[in-house]
Design brief:
single chain; mainly alpha; Na+/H+ antiporter like fold; 18 helices; about 0% strand; globular
Length: about 425
């Protein structure tokens, strides 16, 4: 091993499927970044994946613990852990397909776990209010995002992409925060969850329209078909899923013997509905949530405990993944930083105003709770920005602004929710199902 400070010109190269997990440095740089960075580079191919997972999971739980001791939600710490170990600061771990897959699984199990605590009958009763919340929560952010970019002097297409990125809510973040505090049974929580499902369908249509505009054509027939399929799938599972599962699962369970039968059936339903959701055009996490909701009145506490254990393992990869995508270097210029802060403020205000107004019938306190609960954009906003970047219709600096907005709304939402729900006492049975 060469002593610290030795100059070596040869670049260290990695081979294998997990190459993107760790950045490549010169030995000189490794000594400057310290022992952890050196360990990353010296690790062989077989150990590189578990080492990266150790860094991500360990950093997430460490920062969650620190934030909890400071009186803040632990999930904020897990997102900040991603910023620290990611490209913005230490550069120990890079966004890559392996971590993205773990992140997708994490948010699916989170929404499945939340669905297990929600009865379909209770959620559908809020259909009218939730629909109004979702519609206003789509219109207000889109108009504000588009309007700000146009006033800033940006072209039409990047402006509509920013508006589209501000539309959809990352329900995983809000669900995580509410479940951690045992608040899923509150009327505001149920309204948020129902509105977020509708919001996902509406956001899909907005994205399809914006993508068509970027290509120079908008196919109305295709949009209508997408709307019918997405809405039909969501409504069908929400209305008849529970009744079907209540009749079917006990019969199938009696015929099976291998392993955790009920949990296995729950996993099959989870993955099947997640797949069907993507085929109809909505996000896989909507299918995961609907699967949980369909099973809510059937499964035992054992299934809930097992699902909680899987979520505990995988959800940190979802949260850290959000932080990994934030690149602070893109805000070195004052103009882009100002635009990012303006868009962040608009993202908060537009959801608070639009969704809050939609929840008017629930009272003033619940208006605030619903409005702030719909604020996080998370991975949903970043996906829209990535689509625009991939199509070559939004420049890099606008992409960075959208990612900043997505990350910061995600970080801000849990403290907001903690503040607005501070006078609400959680139900006893949910306290053992904390997710953070």
């Amino acid at each position: 091993m060469r002593p610290p400070g030795a100059r070596v010109k040869q670049k260290i190269r990695y081979s294998g499927r997990h190459e993107a997990l760790i950045p490549a440095w010169h030995n000189e740089a490794l000594h400057e970044f310290g022992p952890v960075a050196y360990l990353l580079a010296e690790t062989g191919d077989a150990a590189r994946l578990p080492l990266a997972l150790l860094i991500v999971f360990g950093a997430a739980k460490l920062f969650a613990e620190i934030l909890e001791k400071l009186g803040q939600p632990g999930i904020v710490g897990e997102i900040l852990a991603g910023v620290l170990v990611g490209p913005s600061l230490l550069g120990w771990v890079q966004p890559n397909e392996t971590l993205a897959a773990l992140s997708d699984l994490g948010v699916m199990f989170l929404l499945f776990r939340v669905g297990l605590e929600v009865k379909a009958s209770e959620l559908t009763r809020l259909g009218g209010t939730a629909t109004l919340v979702a519609v206003l929560g789509v219109a207000a952010p889109f108009c504000m995002g588009w309007g700000i970019l146009r006033l800033w002097g940006e072209p039409q297409v990047p402006a509509v992409f920013v508006g589209a990125a501000m539309v959809a809510t990352s329900v995983g973040i809000t669900a995580h925060a509410l479940a951690a505090k045992g608040l899923l049974d509150h009327v505001a929580s149920k309204t948020i969850l129902a509105a977020a499902v509708i919001d996902d369908v509406l956001g899909l249509l907005v994205l399809a329209a914006v993508s068509g505009l970027a290509r120079g054509r908008v196919n109305l027939a295709e949009l209508a078909l997408t709307a019918v399929l997405a809405a039909g799938f969501t409504v069908a599972v929400a209305l008849w899923g529970t009744r079907t599962v209540v009749k079917l699962v006990p019969r199938v369970e009696k015929r099976l013997r291998a392993g955790e039968v009920q949990f296995n059936l729950a996993m099959i339903l989870l993955f099947a509905l997640a797949l069907l959701a993507t085929k109809t055009g909505v996000a896989a996490i909507v299918g995961a949530f609907l699967a949980g909701m369909a099973l809510a009145e059937t499964v035992t506490g054992r299934v809930r405990d097992l699902a909680h254990g899987v979520a505990e393992l995988l959800v940190p990869f979802f949260l850290v993944g959000i932080g990994l995508h934030l690149d602070l270097a893109t805000f070195a210029g004052a103009s882009n930083l100002v635009l990012a802060l303006v868009i962040f403020a608009a993202a908060v205000v537009s959801k608070l105003a639009g969704c809050g107004l939609g929840a008017w019938s629930l009272g003033a306190k619940n208006m605030w709770r619903v409005g702030l609960g719909m604020v996080p954009r998370g991975e949903v906003g970043m996906v829209v920005a990535q689509i625009g970047l991939g199509m070559g219709v939004i420049p890099q600096h606008i992409y960075a602004v959208v990612v900043f907005m997505a990350v910061m709304t995600t970080v801000a939402a849990p403290p907001f929710l903690k503040l607005t729900f501070r006078d609400v006492k959680p139900r006893e049975p949910e306290e053992r199902f904390t997710l953070g």
